[in-house]
Amino acid sequence: MDFQTGFFYLFAAVLLFAAYRVITARNPVHAVLYLMLSFSQASALWLLLKAEFLGITLVLVYLGAVMVLFLFVVMMLDINMDALRQGFWKHFPVAALLGGIVAAELIAVLWVGFPSVPVSAAVPVPTEVSNTHALGVLLYTEYLYPVQVAAVILLVAMVAAIALTLRQRKDSKAINPSLQVHVRAADRLVVVPMAATRKSEEPTPAEEGKA
After folding, report:
1. 69: helix, strand or coil
2. Which of 45, 98, 131, 181 is the most exposed place for a label (fewest CB within 10 A)?
3. Region 27-54: what's the mean pLDDT?
4. CA angle, 20 then 24 then 30, to 5°
5. 15: three-class secondary structure by DSSP
6. Which long-range contacts (CB under 8 A, 24 or more apart) does 16-23 make?
7. How far is Cα of residue 74 from the mean position of the Cα atoms in its chain?
8. Backbone φ, ψ for residue 173 (5° rounding)
9. For residues 113 and 56, what is the distance between their CA atoms, to the nearest angstrom?
10. Distance from C-alpha of 90 to C-alpha of 34, rounded to nearest angstrom
């Protein structure tokens, strides 16, 4: 067994363990951390398969953005785990049935195997360039217009998010930092002179008669 096969079994074992802990961890924060570990191991498997673009995309998109967002959301929300576990055994038969169907389909596909591609229809793979370079050339030549449309949509979404964040809201309590810097103590604090002690007023004869 060479070192590449050894790394494959190592990453696959850690991936299976992390995926198992995602669905069995009681703490949702721990589940998200195990999910991030499983994504990292899947990225390592992509790198072993010489799919560098997919591995780097998995790390940048899921680990760098999506899972960090999930982690912050889970940590900020006060999730009541007791309320979530109340209907576990009620929905367990349906979940087990669906899981068994999915497992049977995967086993059937792996057992039968994939059909072999005819030699005449096989596309030659260039050896002088990497698959990332070949994918980039394909995206920016044949699929140039879909890539530009996706870029425009993302740009519009980014501009809309910035516009919604920077708009003036009436219910916002944000203060302009320039006003805080140029503020003077005389504008915010007024010292009022007051006597240290004050004599009590003596009651008038009318008030004494009423008493």
Report:
1. helix
2. 181
3. 86
4. 95
5. helix
6. none
7. 10
8. -105, 20
9. 28
10. 26
pLDDT at position 200 over 70 = no
User: In which band, very low, low, confident or very high, does the pLDDT at 127 lie, cut at 50, 70 and 90?
Assistant: low
Contact 21, 34 (CB under 8 A): yes
State the CB neighbour count (10 A cutoff) for residue 91. 9
Name the token pair of 180: 């805080």
* Domain 1-79 grouped into CATH 1.20.120.1200: yes
pLDDT of residue 203: 63
Query: What is the rounded average pLDDT for all residues in the chain?
Result: 79
Q: How far apart are CA 38 and CA 24, in angstroms?
A: 14
First to last CA, the chain: 109
CA dist 89 to 23, 53, 76, 86, 101, Å? Answer: 15, 42, 28, 8, 19
pLDDT value of residue 16: 92
Taking residues 98-103, what's their average pLDDT?
A: 92
Place of tokens 């990497």: 130
* CA 160/CA 55 separation, integer angstroms: 30
Rounded to whole angstroms, how far apart are CA atoms 53 and 61? 12
Write down the residue that tokens 């002690």 correspond to: 197
Question: What's the predicted TM-score (pTM) here?
Answer: 0.55
Could you tell me if 15 and 38 are in contact, meaning their C-beta atoms sit under 8 angstroms apart? yes
CA nearest neighbour of 35 among 18, 11, 49, 48: 18
Q: Helix count (H) and strand count (E) of the chain?
A: 11, 0
When pLDDT is averaged across residues 190-204 and rounded to a whole number, the result is 71
